[in-house]
Structure formats: structure tokens, C-alpha cells
Give the backbone structure.
Amino acid sequence: MSAPTEEDDRRFMNTALGLARRGLGSVWPNPAVGCVLVRDGTVVGRGWTQPGGRPHAETEALARAGSRARGATAYVSLEPCDHHGQTPPCTDALIAAGVARCVVACEDPDPRVSGTGLAHLRAAGIAVTTGVGAAQARSLNHGFFLRLAHDRPLVTLKLATSLDGRVATHRGLSQWITGDTARAWGHGLRARHDAIMVGHGTAQTDDPELTCRLPGLGSRSPVRVVADSRLQLSLTSRLVQGARRVPLWLCCRPDADHARAQVFAQCGVSLLRIAPDPSGSIDVRLTLAALARQGITRVLVEGGSRLAGSLLRTGLVDRLEWFRAPCLIGSDGIAAVAAFGVDSLDLMARFDCLGIRRAGEDLWESFARKDI
């Protein structure tokens, strides 16, 4: 059998990246990793990080390959771990299995790994190739990298609006501006994020569940997070009533009512106390840092307008997923984003367009922040 070509390496790495995407939203605080084992041009094992972050992709693939892993090439979307945590190092597993070559998309920035995994494999006589599919791998785990380097998760702002950027009429009527397809795809976004966040106003007005209700994906519902500085969320809300089934975290000020906090705790709600910003609202930077310390790597923000404006003003929106219905409401409707102090054009939040697709009768537009 001839040696694998660069095209072969790209093809099998694309498969590993596809497997890694299966873990998005369910593997935090770990990264989502995919692994494909190939011998003589044939895939003999494949795996991806399992819910909760373990088992890891490499051990899953090795278990499926069995003895066929000896002499194989392992395509891994992120540098194999080389430290003892809740599971043994994946480098040891690859070496023990007799893998001959390892193709790695990018280095793991975790200081417990960062380069040592690659060095360990090379020292054991395994040929190592890096950089194949690196850009895609970094994009896939951008939230994990942000948590390590900047103490915050990746933030995706999801909007569902009319063509003129309104989320409701002036009377607050909003169900439903976008159609069934757009709403189903929005639930798919929920399944691929670790947490979903809304402001107190949205939680009170809409009384949402914030779960993933796609058939077969109920277990992929993210942690629900509400920015509720004064703990005003109703105890009879669907969020609170479902807190023992799907986690609910309330981000509140340190001086929020202690007695009310105890009642929320009795309902199964977790509280994150966050210092306020100058306006008296909880500081969004500190809020994201608190979520990162809990292990969250990807947050989907679904409203309201003040929360969206605060995140945009501070440059903390990394991705923008915008569903637009072919209708107009007018300037007296409720805007998707509150004012965030753009006095000159250089202060605008700027994004690159990643793609536009049809979502039934609606449009789904995806953007990434300019400096990503």
C-alpha cells in the first residue's frame, strides 16, 4: 500500500473534524475532539469526545479498532492529552496500541498539554505531522481556546427578527416572526452550545423554557443562564420550575436579597454573584469570566436587547446568527439590540459574513467578528 498523500491526510482529517463537531455543546469543559484510525487506506476505528468530556476521542477510536490499530495512522483534530486527569493520557494509549503515525490538526493550548503530547509521541518513535486542517480545528474549538487564553467562553448572539431588525411589535407581540424551519434550526444552535443566556426582561416577558426541543435531542439542552441582577425572576416561571431537570444559573449582584436567594437554591437554582458595572447591572465581562470558571466554553445569547447591546458595546460577540423573516414591523417595534453608544462609524460592531441560506421562507445569515 502506498504512503498516504497530502490529499489523503486532508480527507481523513476532515472526517475527524466532522466527528469532533458531534461533541459541541456536550463535552465542556473539555474540547470537542475527533479521531480516525486508518490502516492501508481503510478506516479501522473512529471516535469523538463523549458527553461530559470523557472518554476521549482517541480511546474511543482505539477501542473500536482493537488490534487493527497496530501500524495505523491516527488523525486527531487536537493534540492528544499527555497528563493524568480523570482518564490516563491518550498519548500512552496511542503508543501502547502500536500506532505508527499521528496526524494532528493543531496544538492544544492547555498548559498541561501544549506540545508535550506531540513530543511524547515523537519520543516513542511515532511519526507526527501537524497543521493539517489547523484553521478549521481552531475555529471548531475557539470557545475552548478563549476560555484558556482570555478567561471567557465564545459568545454567539442569535437574533430572530423582521427585515428591519424588530423582535416584536410595540405592544410586545412576537410569536412568531420567523417560521417553523428557522425555529427548528435555532434549537439546533442550542444543542451545539454549552449554555444559553438571556436577560431578566426576556425571561419575565416570554417565560421561555430555553431547552432543545428537537426530536431525540432533548438531552442536549444547554445550561440556562439568566442575567438577573436583583433576583426578580418569578419563582413560578418555567425556567425555575424546570431547574432540577435542566440546570438554571442566575447571575445576580453580590447584594441581591439573601432570603430570595435561599428560596431559589431550594428550587435547584444555582447563583453566580457578579459585581455590577457603573450602570448597576451585572458586569458582562465578569459574567462571562464566571461562566468560564464553571467550565463553559460556548454561550448562545438569545436576548434581550439590553444584554445584546452590552455585549456588542464591549466587543464580546464572536458569532452572530441572524434569522430574518420577510416582513417589516416599523420603527415603533421593539429593536433586537438596544443602543450601545455608537457616536462614530469607527465604533460600529463589524462582522464578516460567513454564509447566507434559506430557512423555509426566512433567511439565516451567519457572521464572525472581524478580528477572529
In short: The two ends are 41 Å apart (CA to CA). DSSP finds twelve helices and 16 strands in the chain.
